[in-house]
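Below: protein 1.
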Amino acid sequence: MAATEALILKHNPSWALAGVDGTHPAWFADLAGAGFTDLESFSFDVAVPYSHADWCGRIRASAGVAASLTPERVEAFDAEHAALLAQRFPDDPLDVPHRAWALVGRAPD
């Protein structure tokens, strides 16, 4: 993921979602402000297998690529991304880490 994120930033330096770790600590304040109590969070990580083609498609569809770049820039990103995967991550499929994160609380009476 880090290599893909660096490539997205190379092609789209203004991408605002870089560096996200899959948690949302600000949501504690949101729920507390709405009156929720007994707030707790938990997370777990899983490795999700993607073929190179599927990972390229998943990333192409992301906000940092197809939703923000011109078609020509998306094409350039795609070519560089495919080359990166082939060179640095030749195993296909590859395991991509994903984090599941939850925040639970007691609703106000």
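Below: protein 2.
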Amino acid sequence: MARICKVLIAENDDDVCGLLGDIFNDGGFHFSMVKTGAETREALDDDDYDIVVIDVTQPGHEDGFVLAEFAYSQGCGAILVTDDHCHLARLEASGQHYLLKPYRVQQLVELSDKILTETRRKRSNGSFFPVRTV
């Protein structure tokens, strides 16, 4: 099924980036890839994305949580991903969507579809900012 949406993948590991690209391509999503927080910000400033998938651990000074907030401010939904379970408490407290590695392909696709639906509803209501449960 083709989806009319754009996904930004913010991941510095080439193997993971390739896998995510394959998943989104097979799922009918349009996507772009970046490797750093600075590139993520630039891409979100330059183009309209519906979803950004962000590795919590980013090279440089920004972490995925900061980038997810920036994505929300740009009208974009976000999925934080990590294999470091030390981030679990912060992920749960943030109220943001997240997946712990390793996750199933179907989990990523279903969560992406859910966020796409939420984002479009919020954009049409003029109230994009997500409800936080902090």
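Residues 26-82+95-124 form a domain with the Rossmann fold fold (CATH 3.40.50.2300).
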